[in-house]
Amino acid sequence: MNYLIRSFFERDTVQVARELLGKVMVRRFGDAVCCARIVETESYTSDDPACHAFRGKTKRNASLFGPVGHAYVYLSYGLHWCLNVVARKPSMSAGGVLIRALEPMSGIEFFRNNRPWVKYSDLMNGPGKVTKALMIDRSYDGYDLIANNELTFMDSDIPNNYEVQTTTRIGINKAIDQPWRFLLIKSN
DNA sequence: CACCCGATTATCT
DNA sequence: GATAATCGGGTGT
């Protein structure tokens, strides 16, 4: 397995969101290497009213305008951190892919560290849960996910028994008809 | 500077 | 399936 390179993220944001399905999120806690498959993403770009960057650059969303392959981390509902990876073609001013859900593969005991009581199936099946399990907070906003190995992506093929689903995005009230949400579902 | 509300989750029933 | 929790940005006074 190889790490994803920066040019992977320097393409159309929707395409990156789709192709990120099945890739592996790698999280290192000290010497421990923990992996989780990406199973749900959403695309947000600066020409999209639902995107934080739609109304221009602010202190909060500045990372979305920064180099691709870096993280954009923001607080949702005053409670939860959400992890995005900056991705866009060069002609687009800002854009990112929201990592909405992961499926734990290895190092699960580390992912459970914060919340040992949660069911396996509730561990990373939501954007706020993803950041809890990965122990991501505001300090990772702007973090380079390509140049570092504490948190990064590995290339991987989608296993045979999974299928890709495309739906409209959820939890938003603007541009709600765009099919920019991508899921990986076990088909057996 | 006050007010409003959201790319959600946990914890009830 | 309803609702409380909780806070920083955006917007407009």
Q: Summarize this, please?
A:
This protein has helices at 13-19, 108-111, 127-134; strands at 24-29, 32-45, 71-76, 80-86, 95-106, 151-154, 162-167, 181-186. It has 188 residues and is mostly beta strands.
How are helices and strands ordered from N to C? HEEEEEHHEEE
Helix content: 10-25%
| Terminal residue distance | 25 Å
- What's the overall average pLDDT, rounded? 93
Biggest sheet descriptor:
8 strands, antiparallel
Which runs of at least 5 residues are low in confidence (pLDDT < 50)?
Answer: none
The number of helices is 3
Could you tell me the radius of gyration in angstroms? 15 Å
Would you spell out the secondary-structure blueprint of this structure?
Elements: H1 13-19, E1 24-29, E2 32-45, E3 71-76, E4 80-86, E5 95-106, H2 108-111, H3 127-134, E6 151-154, E7 162-167, E8 181-186
Antiparallel strand pairs: 1-2, 1-6, 2-5, 2-8, 3-4, 4-5, 7-8
This protein binds a DNA duplex (13 and 13 nucleotides) through strand 3, strand 4 and helix 3.
